[in-house]
Amino acid sequence: MILAIGYITLCSILYTLFRIGKKKAVIKNQTSKGTKYNSTQISVIIPFRNEENNIPNLIRSIKNLNKLPLEFIWVNDHSTDQSVSILKEQINGFNHIVLHLPKDLIGKKNALIYGITNAKGEYILTWDADITLQANFFNSLESYPISSLGVLPVEMKPAVQSTSFFATEFHFLNQINISIYGWFRPIIANGANLLIDKAAFNQIQPYQENLAVASGDDQFLLKQFNKQKQSISVISDQNLIATTYTPSSIKKCLEQRIRWATKTNKVNDKTANLIGILGLIYHFIPILFIFFSLETFLIVMVLKIIFDFLIQEQKIRFNNISNIILFSIFYPIYTLFLVVYMLFSKGEWKGRKIM
To answer: How far apart are CA 292 and CA 297, in angstroms?
Structure first.
């Protein structure tokens, strides 16, 4: 019982810190002053490789925008499908540029560098090719002051019901990231929706030492901007959400998570690692109570589910509650399985090995 009280106390402290951090994040953004973004100064860069199934949705989303940026730069990373032909068919009448990555350059980091080199805007907005956007995206963006790096919101929805767990995990981590930003700085950035000061990027050159790593453009960028003490903002405006979907199967979701875990290991952010350890303690300790008392285990698990639901800040709906219950119960098992899966996985992404 003493251990149960200790765990409940830990959860209460962590949740209190979480709530205060969320409030501090809002205050940070509300009190930020300075020149605000102007859409005509923004170049949107969209690196893509074999995205023929997603590009039409993004283009429809772009055509529905109420306000447009200076330009859209699409950078083809050696696609082998119909991505380029589909793109060229559908971008007539818009300020779009299609670039092809030279043969001696591969990967998303090189695609971003190539796009930024050719961009006219003072600020670079990076999007993934598998997202959709709100119509008033740029109208809302212009209400925020400029920072060297703007971490904009990304929402992940389940492609099929069986992948709801992974969408829940993604949302959970994003909520934690906002709170951590409120206290000091973010530990997560998502390249699907990032706003970068071009001059700061060129000065810092965040990919100079990690081009050989197949993924992690966003996390390496965040680490280097943090290291150079650049101004970073995390904006959770609903109008700025870039919506994407989980991969279409549990296997593909696991492969995606392995890629994310690999880049996290390569980035080696000590603050993120420390918070990750605290997260593991939070998620794993309830499992230990099953060896002491089934009654205590059930009490602790119910309390953990409540805390997880509060952190998610979801509306009280059957799907939300059921997804979080599954997340709370199976997350420790999933984490262990992911570690084992990593040992035997080939580690490939879009036909390329993850280094």
So the answer is: 8
| Sequence-separated contacts (24+) of 308-315 with Cβ below 8 Å | 308/172, 310/15, 311/15, 311/18, 311/172, 311/175, 311/176, 312/168, 312/171, 312/172, 312/175, 313/175, 314/171
d(CA 186, CA 177): 6
Per-residue CA distances from 268 to 58, 82, 211, 320, 348 (Å): 33, 37, 16, 33, 21
Do residues 244 and 154 lie in contact, with contact meaning Cβ atoms separated by under 8 Å?
yes
Burial (CB count <10 Å: 0-12, 13-18, 19+), residue 299: middle
Which whole number is the average pLDDT over 89-100?
Answer: 86
Distance CA 105, CA 114 (A): 9
In angstroms, how far is CA 191 from the centroid of its own chain? Answer: 7
What mean pLDDT comes out for the span 157-171? 93
| Selection from 117, 137, 120, 163 nearest residue 58 by Cα | 137
**Of 190, 119, 184, nearest to 151 (Cα)?**
190
Report pTM: 0.89
253 conformational bin, left if phi > 0, alpha if psi -120 to 50, beta if neither: alpha
φ, ψ dihedrals at 121, nearest 5°? -75, 155
All domains of the chain, ordered by start, with CATH?
2-21+271-353 (no CATH), 32-249 (3.90.550.10)
Indicate the residue type of 211.
L
Q: Which residues of 31-54 are buried (b: 16+ CB within 10 A; e: fewer)?
A: eeeeeebbbeebbbbbbbbbbbeb
Characterise 347 by phi-psi region: left (phi > 0), alpha (psi -120 to 50), beta (else). Answer: left
According to DSSP, residue 51 is labeled -
Q: What is the pLDDT of residues 301-320, one digit of tens each?
A: 888 898 888 888 776 666 77
CA pair distance 15, 6, nearest whole angstrom: 14
pLDDT reading at 284 higher than 90? no
The SS3 of residue 315 is coil
Find, among 55, 106, 280, the residue nearest to 114 by Cα.
106
